[in-house]
Amino acid sequence: MDRGGRVLTGSLAALALLGGWLAADATAFCQLLVSQPLVGATLSGWLLGDAFAGAQVGALLQLFALAGLPLGGRTPEDFASAGVVGPVVALTVHRDLPTAPFATPLVLGVAAGLVTALLGRLFVRWLRARNVGLARWAEEETRAGAAFAVDRAQWLGVAHAFAIGAGFTVAAATGLAVAARAAVRFDALAVEHAANLSEPALWGLGAGLAIRQLVSGGRHTRLLFLAALVFWVAVRWLGQG
Amino acid sequence: MTAAGDPVPPRADRAVRGFDLARVVTRSFLLQALWNPERQQGAGFAFALRPLLRAAFGREGEAAALARHQGYFNTNPAFASYALGAVGRLEVERGLGLDVPEEAVERAKASLGPALAAIGDSLMWSTLRPVAAALGVTWVLGGSVYGPILFLALYNGLHLLVRVRGVLLGWSKGLGFWEEGMRRRLRWLSYGLRACAVIAAVALADALARRIAGVPGAGAPFALILGTAIGLAWGENRRLSASIAGLALFSLALAWATLVR
User: Fold this and answer.
1) Taking chain B (261 residues) in consecutive chunks of 10 residues, what is each chunk's mean pLDDT?
2) What is the pTM of this model?
3) Which residues contact A71 (CB under 8 A, 6 or more apart)?
4) Is A33 within 8 Å of B141 when comparing Cβ atoms?
């Protein structure tokens, strides 16, 4: 087995545990936002030996994650798994292309993360449908006098979220890393060129989404932002002069 | 219920130990463990309230009280702590024989859920999370690996405070916690966070401009501006995910790179 492949298989168990933990944190357990891609990707990168590379992939994914709010009954995209899968793909590609700039692994990692987030939404929806049955069972048991059923159902809910997250993360990381390596081997030049072209546009898209969220507090907030931006540009311009 | 001439029941504060309230706080972290489209946080609310229900009704009455609380409930998960404290107090008073009808508890839950969701979602999801994330991302773009730690510290500083204080305040004041002073404090917190959001947005723009300045090729700033314009306009159409827009950008670049060569 070559170097990129060894990196992936050697860390699969640790990545599964991380994927499970982050999937549980996203909704079922604690919600400390460790599951946000900025944090998850840094942890994933650290497990694979390069925390800062993971943090860079996570930073771009985080900007995309800010576009979706987990409000009401909306099923959010699965950025918890995306945060783990993105750095796996990026670092696998980076080890296959050690002389290329980090733009190529970064863009491939982010693309893999976005695919994971979209696919993971289906599993989140499935998990929530399973929770209906578990909640009904707990209700029937408590009506019959078994108060402990509530505790048991809650912890089962956490365990389900962990298991589904762990399984999906490993499957997505393996599948997408293999696909990314195949693409690089098929036409490395085209992939590098595409990554160089799309990297600034992806940062811009992410920044636009994030800034939109940040200044969504009304017209006054948007005007204040514009004034601050003009002031900042003027200060920079004067400083250069 | 107490009737005229009955002995005055003991106060709720004496019936519940600090340890019970601590258990409500820790259990509130599993509020969404069984989140589902039918009852949403209903099962989690009952689970978190269980220590107070046991203190109020004992082992015999606990299951019936738990069953009452497993119906529909949904609010912001951090701000749910206020509802847990206040509703828990009502239940304990009921258990001690005070005149608190079952409908009053249901009404309290039904009114607190949407009210706390409105303020909590706006503060935690729409303001604090983007501010903390933008500052964390800015640190990473500046070359620091500690951006995620900054993000976690900023978010959880307020998140954990709300979780703990919510239960304690809801318990000590009952439904009276939702007074003018509390609403005023939350309003000021919201103004402060919005000011921070403007600073975070400018810091993010600055960090990205610096990063793209280092990218070779004259087209990079143009691509950055084009991407930003798409991102700013994207929120108008929320049916299509922003992730699809990102993948479409990369696919277009890949098609271009393949065709041009």
Assistant:
1) 53 85 98 96 97 94 95 96 97 93 95 95 95 98 97 98 97 91 92 95 95 84 93 76 95 94 71
2) 0.94
3) B121, B125
4) no
